[in-house]
Structure formats: structure tokens, C-alpha cells
């Protein structure tokens, strides 16, 4: 036989469910409030009843003392059971309902008392104050028990004190009045408790629905897990309330947006300023996977409304992905250019082989010199005008891509840029994006040409990129710098509409500007001004160029070479 399982220990304590805990606590609070209110009401009621009893006793005593038969009998007769003082005092006591009326002389001996055996005996309490002419109200204990008393001096016709009158109302009668009031008070308290219990039940049901009947410990654990999850994930989360104010901001969102906890409680317009990022967070721009630029970061934003009228926005950093995509585009362009060069190189090798087989050695030497010289001259022409190695390498690489795409890439004779750039990588991004945009614009057009001009004026760098494409309509010259706006088909790795927006952001971050206009002879001309882009002393004068309007880095290959091989 299997052993009998041990009995479970009885666990005493609060129930686990929020509904039960809230109901129990609110009922306990309501009961406590009812008991406290009853006690607070009974305490002043008891004092009020005692006060009324003492004033009533004092009023009866004053009335008795004003009776001339009492004073005359006290002065002229001895204290006897059937004396005039006893008869008059008992008449007044029965008429007023007092517990006792005691008339005493200056010798503190009773002339009247409800208990006849006490007549002629001294009083049990000190009547000094009353015999001295003072009125006394008190709760005291005498021969008839605890009572509310009123004592007044007794005057004769000559207004001389001849004794005192003491009237008592039994304390039990006061207590009886108080006890009689308790059932009514308890009824009111019970009604209040019932109303409180009903309200507690309704509130508990609402709490139960809102908390889905979870225990407080479960809610606490969920909150802790939420905080850990929000601040641990590598995706920005911004929660907005129904008024459009930021009520939650995790660490990644603060990093991506460049704001901190001071933004909580403020609207995105106040925390971020004007821009597409603000429009996306506030819902003025709607859609899924919306591209936006914040600083130097490319972000993908999604916004989801919540049931309470607020919203939750998520932000993903696409900067590295965008850079990788652009590098991929550049790599593909270079591969295509290398493939074209390989094709051209094969044609030249075939030509060289033919010259050698024909024993035309001098022509072969001259042909090789021309081929090598063209490439050397192209690189030298760029490095003479653009002294920064990163920019020079970029332009040489773009020349190869342009030649493959049948576009003539020119560097203006006015180009002169010293090797003193403060942010060469930023300028590389600007030039690369503008040249790529120009190459896309002129692709497939006859006599396609792109011209780049870089010049230094003091510490300011001026960049112009012209093309012979269709140009940008006047009504779209500001839209082209808007994040996510593009007239081109998106590439395989992502969306367009980022390059020109980055150009303007990088320019404005350096205090400069980026605009687009119409180029001479048609096409578009992008102009970027970068103040304080150069460091160090004033640049040397630009070298004197030839009379040509510019230096061709990439010309369209001749038709005979394209068809060879």
C-alpha cells in the first residue's frame, strides 16, 4: 500500500486574488470607519447628556431654593420626617422626576431626603461651595449611588444664606438614555457598512475586470518583467497617453531620439521639435515601417493606437542596414565596372597581341603607354584638385561606375579642396549621395553628364553637383529632401528617400544648407554649403587649370570598343 500523503497545512492569510483582497480590505475599512464614527458620535453624546442632566438638576435646585416655604421651614422647624421642608421637597421631587432633593442647613444636617432614615443626619458629600454661595454642577456618588447633581445656596427673606439645596438625577437614567440611543446608532452604522460593502464589491469587480483577476504578486512580477523587457530590448519603445504626452520611454528610444527622462510628460513637439520623427510619433504621418532620420540615424517607425486613446510607437535603427545597403549598391556598381574593365582589358590585350604578332613593336609600346597613362592621368587630376584622400578615392571610384553606366563624370576646373576637413566622412557621405542621385537621374538619357565642383572659401566648403537629367520641378524641390519621398523604385535591400534627407541633415548639423535648383542648359544642380568645415590656416590658392571647363574623369566608351570582343 502506498503511504498516506501528509495532510496539507492550513495556510491562513489574505486570499491571492486581487478581487478578494480588495473586497476584504474595503469591507474592513468600512467596518472600521463605522465603528470609529459610532465611537466619535457616542463620546460627545455622553458628555452632552451628562451636561443636560447636571443643568436639569441645577435648575430644579434653583426652583426649590426659591420656594419661600423651604427657607421658612428650615429656619423655624427641626429636621423631621413629616416636617414642612420634607413635604415640600418631596412634592417638588415627584413633580420634576428628580432622584432626590436634599435640603440642608448650615450645620450640614439634612431637613429632607427620599430615604426618611437619612433625615436629621449629616450629608455624605461636602456642601462647602453651596453654603458659601456658589452654584455647583457635578457627577458624583452619594448614598443613592452615582448621580448628576446640582447644588445651590438657600437664602431667607433677608437674603442671608441659611442652608443649601442639593438635587440629584440618578446616573443610571442618563446611561439608560445613552443605551437607548445605541440601537439607532448601530442601525445607521450597519446601513453605512452595508453601503460601503456594496461599493467595495462594485469596485472590486471593476478591479477584477481590469486586472484580469491576477494576484498582486503576479501584477508586481509583470511590472518588473515589463520594465526589464522594455529597457533590455534593442528596439525603441515610446508610449503616449490620450493627451499626446510621452508617458513611457525605454533606454533604446532615448538613445535613438537623443532625449532622456526629462521628455516624459511632454509632447513630442516639445521634446523633439518639428520634423518627420515628431509627425510619425504624433500620428500626423501614418503608415507602416515609416522611414525617418534623427540626427545621423535612419530609423524605421511604427505606431499602434491603444484602447485608452493613447499610442505605442516602436523605433528600429536602420543606420547600419542602410549603410550596408549603400555599400552593397556601391559594391555591385564596382563589380559591374570591373566586369566592364575586364571586358575592355581583354579587348586591349587582344589588340596588343595582334600588334606583337604583326611585329609592330613600336606601335605596341606606344599603345601600352597610352593605356597606362590614361589611368594615371585620371587619378593625378583628381588628387591635384581634391587633396583629401577619402574624397579623391570616392571620386575615382565613382568615375569607374559612371563609365560603366555610359555617363561622363567631370570635375570642375574650379574645384580645389585642401586636406583640412573637420569631418571628411560626413562630406564623403554627402558627395556620394549626390553623385549617386545624379547618376540615377541621367541614366538612360542621351549625352549623360554629371559635373562635381568642390571649392573652399575661407573655412567654408561649397559643393555643387550638376547633371543633364530631367531636373526637379519647382514644386518638388523641397519634397526631394523629405524622408521617405522618392520617385525611384526601391532597391532590393530597402526603401528609398533617405540619401537626400541625410545630405540636408548633415549640412544643417554643421550650420549649413542644402538646396536644389535648375542647372544651366537643363538638369538639376544641388548646392551644399558647409560653414566651418575646414580647420587650420587659410588654404593656398587653387592651381591654375587649363582653359577647359572641366576635367573628364569618365567618358562614354567609344562605340568600337563597346562592340569589340
Automatic annotation (TrEMBL):
Residues 423-534 form the Histidine kinase domain. GO terms for cellular component: plasma membrane. SMART domains: HATPase_c (SM00387). One of its GO terms (biological process) is regulation of DNA-templated transcription. SUPFAM superfamilies: ATPase domain of HSP90 chaperone/DNA topoisomerase II/histidine kinase, PYP-like sensor domain (PAS domain), Sensory domain-like, Sporulation response regulatory protein Spo0B. Its EC number is 2.7.13.3. GO terms for molecular function: ATP binding; phosphorelay sensor kinase activity. It is found in: Cell membrane. Keywords: ATP-binding, Cell membrane, Kinase, Membrane, Nucleotide-binding, Phosphoprotein, Transferase, Transmembrane, Transmembrane helix, Two-component regulatory system. It is a multi-pass membrane protein. The chain crosses the membrane at residues 20-45, 185-203. Gene3D superfamilies: 1.10.287.130, Histidine kinase-like ATPase, C-terminal domain, PAS domain. It catalyses: ATP + protein L-histidine = ADP + protein N-phospho-L-histidine. CDD domains: HATPase_DpiB-CitA-like. Its main location: membrane. Residues 533-565 are annotated as: Disordered. Signal peptide: none annotated. PANTHER family: SENSOR HISTIDINE KINASE TRCS, SENSOR HISTIDINE KINASE YKOH. This is histidine kinase. It comes from Streptomyces lucensis JCM 4490. The lineage of its organism: Bacteria, Bacillati, Actinomycetota, Actinomycetes, Kitasatosporales.
Amino acid at each position: 500500500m502506498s503511504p498516506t500523503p501528509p495532510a496539507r497545512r492550513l495556510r491562513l492569510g489574505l486570499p491571492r486574488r486581487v478581487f478578494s483582497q480588495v473586497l476584504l480590505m474595503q469591507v474592513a475599512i468600512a467596518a472600521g470607519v463605522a465603528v470609529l464614527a459610532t465611537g466619535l458620535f457616542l463620546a460627545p453624546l455622553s458628555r452632552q447628556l451628562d451636561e443636560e442632566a447636571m443643568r436639569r438638576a441645577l435648575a430644579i435646585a434653583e426652583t426649590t431654593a426659591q420656594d419661600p416655604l423651604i427657607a421658612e421651614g428650615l429656619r423655624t422647624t427641626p429636621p423631621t420626617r413629616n416636617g414642612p421642608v420634607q413635604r415640600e421637597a418631596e412634592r417638588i421631587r415627584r413633580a420634576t422626576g428628580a432622584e432626590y432633593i436634599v435640603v440642608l442647613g448650615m450645620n450640614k444636617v439634612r431637613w429632607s431626603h427620599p430615604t426618611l432614615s437619612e433625615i436629621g443626619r449629616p450629608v455624605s458629600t461636602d456642601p462647602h461651595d453651596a453654603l458659601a454661595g456658589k452654584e455647583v454642577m457635578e457627577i458624583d456618588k452619594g448614598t443613592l449611588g452615582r448621580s448628576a447633581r446640582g447644588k445651590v445656596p438657600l437664602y431667607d427673606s433677608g437674603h442671608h444664606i441659611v442652608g443649601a439645596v442639593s438635587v440629584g438625577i440618578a446616573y443610571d437614567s442618563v446611561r439608560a438614555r445613552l443605551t437607548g440611543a445605541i440601537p439607532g446608532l448601530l442601525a445607521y452604522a450597519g446601513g453605512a457598512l452595508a453601503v460601503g460593502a456594496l461599493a467595495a464589491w462594485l469596485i472590486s469587480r471593476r478591479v477584477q475586470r481590469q486586472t484580469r483577476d491576477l494576484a498582486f504578486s503576479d501584477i508586481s512580477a509583470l511590472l518588473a518583467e515589463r520594465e526589464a523587457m522594455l529597457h533590455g530590448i534593442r528596439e525603441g519603445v515610446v508610449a503616449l497617453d490620450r493627451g499626446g504626452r510621452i508617458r513611457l520611454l525605454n533606454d533604446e528610444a532615448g538613445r535613438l531620439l537623443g532625449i532622456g527622462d526629462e521628455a516624459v510628460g511632454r509632447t513630442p513637439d516639445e521634446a523633439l521639435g518639428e520634423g518627420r520623427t515628431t509627425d510619425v510619433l504624433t500620428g500626423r504621418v501614418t503608415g507602416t515601417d515609416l522611414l525617418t532620420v534623427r540626427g545621423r540615424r535612419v530609423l524605421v517607425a511604427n505606431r499602434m493606437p491603444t484602447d485608452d486613446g493613447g499610442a505605442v510607437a516602436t523605433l528600429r535603427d536602420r543606420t547600419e542596414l542602410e549603410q550596408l545597403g549603400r555599400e552593397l549598391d556601391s559594391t555591385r556598381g564596382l563589380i559591374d565596372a570591373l566586369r566592364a574593365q575586364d571586358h575592355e582589358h581583354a579587348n586591349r590585350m587582344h589588340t596588343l597581341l595582334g600588334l606583337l604578332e604583326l611585329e609592330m613593336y613600336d606601335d605596341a609600346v606606344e599603345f601600352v603607354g597610352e593605356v597606362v597613362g590614361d589611368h594615371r592621368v585620371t587619378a593625378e587630376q583628381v588628387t591635384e584638385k581634391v587633396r583629401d584622400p577619402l574624397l579623391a578615392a570616392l571620386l575615382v571610384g565613382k568615375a569607374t561606375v559612371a563609365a560603366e553606366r555610359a555617363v561622363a563624370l567631370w570635375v570642375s576646373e574650379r574645384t580645389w579642396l585642401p586636406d583640412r576637413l573637420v569631418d571628411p566622412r560626413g562630406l564623403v557621405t554627402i558627395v556620394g549621395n549626390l553623385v549617386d542621385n545624379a547618376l540615377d537621374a541621367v541614366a538612360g538619357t542621351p549625352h549623360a553628364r554629371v559635373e562635381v565642383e568642390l571649392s573652399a572659401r575661407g573655412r567654408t566648403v561649397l559643393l555643387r553637383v550638376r547633371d543633364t537629367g530631367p531636373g526637379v520641378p519647382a514644386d518638388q524641390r523641397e519634397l526631394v529632401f523629405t524622408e521617405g519621398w522618392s520617385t525611384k523604385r526601391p532597391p532590393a535591400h530597402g526603401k528609398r528617400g533617405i540619401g537626400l534627407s541625410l545630405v540636408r541633415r548633415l549640412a544643417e548639423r554643421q550650420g549649413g544648407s542644402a538646396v536644389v535648383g535648375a542647372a544651366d542648359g537643363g538638369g538639376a544642380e544641388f548646392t551644399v554649403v558647409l560653414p566651418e568645415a575646414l580647420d587650420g590656416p587659410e588654404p593656398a590658392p587653387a592651381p591654375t587649370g587649363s582653359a577647359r571647363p572641366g576635367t573628364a574623369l569618365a567618358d562614354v566608351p567609344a562605340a568600337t570598343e563597346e562592340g569589340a570582343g
